[in-house]
Amino acid sequence: MTHVPDVSPQAAWEALKTDPNAVLVDVRTDAEWNFVGLPDLSELGKKVVLIPWQMFPTMQVNNQFTEHLRKAGVTPESRVYYLCRSGARSLAAGQAAQAAGFPQAFNVADGFEGPVGPDGHRGGVAGWKADGLPWVQR
């Protein structure tokens, strides 16, 4: 089994800012990108790579995930930070990527929205949004 370390959203942001080989891959579904929002890397001169780990609405695993990584320009030398809603799908995607020859995989802990808070909503307790990192609504 491969090991994909968890990193905080802030640590991922710092790596994206300072490492030209760092890439952020958002593995959520197109519905999530459209309705929840996306990390905004424009101030870093980068774009988020959007490749779903599971396909909406069936949620079957995207069996072309690693091929899509290659087509997006991700290489074995890239330090890849995988992001999903809460950190579970991104971990699975990172493990699959490592197994397919992308060794430098990192899981963004708590994902884009993090866990459900006391108010019953995501996005306020932990994760990319809660940490105040840049994001946009499509």
TrEMBL record:
Source species, domain of life: Bacteria
Pfam families found in the cross-reference section: Rhodanese (PF00581)
SUPFAM superfamilies found in the cross-reference section: Rhodanese/Cell cycle control phosphatase (SSF52821)
A GO term for molecular function: transferase activity
Keywords associated with the record: Transferase
Rhodanese domain sequence ranges: 18-137
InterPro entries: Rhodanese-like_dom, Rhodanese-like_dom_sf, STR4-like
Stored SMART domains: RHOD
Name under which the protein is recorded: Rhodanese-related sulfurtransferase
Organism classification: Bacteria, Pseudomonadati, Pseudomonadota, Alphaproteobacteria, Acetobacterales
